[in-house]
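Narrative of accomplishments. A recurring question from our advisory board has been how the design workflow behaves on a single, concrete structure rather than in aggregate. To address it, we present the structure tokens for one chain from the evaluation set, followed by the sequence designed for it. No filtering or post-editing was applied between the two.
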């Protein structure tokens, strides 16, 4: 709880002569209540003092312990790149996005992590932003290129050491080795890519067979059909008349079938009555 964090270091670096609890939230992009909580935590650690004054303004000043932390951070920021710095960059490239994730991945003390993150930012390998009291970390172009220009998965190799020049300045950490893809994966991909082609070939063959069968059927159908002989005007007139007559008969039957049945029933009853009378007279 009392160990230095990178967020503590950010707060210390942003405090100036006009800093107060009421106005400091805009400096670190955090709400008033979250800012007051953060400054209270830093005060408990002994890095700052908070003084109340007339008008309700709570002035924030850095203590000697806080000044010592800033001096040490500036000194470490000028040091050459070390294996831990290289491990930080690879862990960030591997998906760690905040100091808590880096600490969990590398299993190092919070104070050491804070100084090394600050060094990587000062030397242009990393950058950060603060939102709602949370620190987000990201690689710069220089930092990304120093990891080999590729996203590294898993825990970084802490043994990879940055190269120092004869003047003692830090060089970019070593590039990560690229592993050739497994052969069985290549075969699997080739098989997947080949599947649509095989399916297309099968559908093409089936379509070809259907078209041939259709052509064969149409050919025989045309052979069986006899060409119609042209009709004379008289025959054509009779054919039209017959069609009209049949249409009229169908219409009357569909419209008056009930009446026709009734008439037929009446005729049948009348015929039966006449037959009965004739039979009785005999």
């Amino acid at each position: 709880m009392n160990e230095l964090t990178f967020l503590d270091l950010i707060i210390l670096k942003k405090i100036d002569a006009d800093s107060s609890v009421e106005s400091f939230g805009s400096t670190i992009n955090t709400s008033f209540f979250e800012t007051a909580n953060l400054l209270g935590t830093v005060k408990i650690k002994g890095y700052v003092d908070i003084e109340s004054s007339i008008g309700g303004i709570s002035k924030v000043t850095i203590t000697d312990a806080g000044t010592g932390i800033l001096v040490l951070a500036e000194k470490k920021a000028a040091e050459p790149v070390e294996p831990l710095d290289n491990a930080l960059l690879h862990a960030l490239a591997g998906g760690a996005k905040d100091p808590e994730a880096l600490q969990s991945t590398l299993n190092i003390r919070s104070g050491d992590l804070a100084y090394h993150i600050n060094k990587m930012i000062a030397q242009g390998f990393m950058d950060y932003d603060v939102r709602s009291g949370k620190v987000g970390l990201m690689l710069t172009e220089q930092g990304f290129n120093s990891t080999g220009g590729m996203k590294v998965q898993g825990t970084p190799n802490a043994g990879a050491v940055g190269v120092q020049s004869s003047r003692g300045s830090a060089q970019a950490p070593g590039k990560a080795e690229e592993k050739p893809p497994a052969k069985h994966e290549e075969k699997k991909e080739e098989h997947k890519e080949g599947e649509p082609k095989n399916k297309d070939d099968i559908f093409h063959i089936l379509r070809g067979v259907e078209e041939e069968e259709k052509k064969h059927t149409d050919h025989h159908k045309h052979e069986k059909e006899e060409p119609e002989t042209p009709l004379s005007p008289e025959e054509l007139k009779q054919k039209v008349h017959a069609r009209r007559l049949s249409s009229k008969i169908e219409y009357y039957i569909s419209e008056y079938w009930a009446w026709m049945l009734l008439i037929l029933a009446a005729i049948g009853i009348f015929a039966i009555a006449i037959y009965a009378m004739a039979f009785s007279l005999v």
